[in-house]
Amino acid sequence: MLQIITDSASDITREEAQEMNIFVVPLRIQFEDGECPQETGEDFPKFYERLVQSEKLPTTSQPSPQEYLGYFETAQENGDEVLVITLSSGLSGTIGAAETAKQICGYDKIAIVDSRQAIIAQRMVVEYALSLRNQGMELNSIVKKLEELRDHITVCGVVDTLTYLRKGGRIPAGMDIIGNVIGIKPVIVLEDCVLKPLAKVRGRKAGKKMLYRRLEQVELDERFPVYFGYSSNRKLGEEFMKETIEKYHLKNAALFPVGGVIGTHVGTDCIAISFVEKF
After folding, report:
1. Integer Cα distance of 269 and 52 in angstroms
2. Residue 129 — very low, low, confident or very high, per pLDDT cuts 50/70/90?
């Protein structure tokens, strides 16, 4: 049997993981007044409530090797194979924790894949692995398929406020005040394993146009869904998804919340889209 393990940057909840028959290792989010778990759908809005109220950004810590080791040792005892799909190595050292656990365990039926993605795009990689497992594909072939897919996924979004980028030290102090007053919306993309600025525009409408421009640059691979994300405001996400489906006649789309691992940096009222270029 093949065990699939990912981490909480995928925003796959505990209930979803049980339905998928996979395991999720948590990245821990710590506010000054304590930890904020991201295991259930109810945990996500609670995170944003605390984020708005907190003067300082929470810290996010990667899983320890021990958290992977427990799964690896159980798989070894049962003779199962293991596939680990991690948050992008450019955003976290999570993959290093998994690799350390593999070395400690000394079990050779473990494959670790850097998704090079996060949030809805990481979810897409995990779901693809699940479909391949259900088809009975062997581990090495699944790894090759995932490594092919990950380089053809785009995930990008519009950030509503500069406040959290300032708190995270990514822009100078005071710039967020000016930018927020005139309605600057950064457009970001996860590219080459890291978050990069795509543009800075005035207003969410202009931001969505930038996302559409990115979408129009590729031929969509219709074997895969188009996923939409929202960081705190589901209504914004639903409106964005509905508009995009109608504009591009999408047949396979879904909407998911963005949890605290990436939400810490993009803040509230962010919208995102992820799609696969035909390959």
Report:
1. 11
2. very high
Nearest to 264 by CA among 95, 86, 44: 44
CA distance 123 to 118: 8
DSSP 6-63: EEGGG---HHHHHHHT-EEEPPEEEETTEE----STTHHHHHHHHHHH-SSPPEEEPP
Looking at the predicted structure, is the pLDDT value of residue 181 above 50? no
Q: Tokens at residue 150, please?
A: 């990950």
Handedness of CA 260, 261, 262, 267 (dihedral sign): positive
Please give the angle made by the CA atoms of 70, 76 and 79, to the nearest 5 degrees.
140
Give rounded-to-5 percent helix, strand, coil for the chain. 45, 25, 30
CA-CA distance, 78 to 106, in Å (whole number)? 15
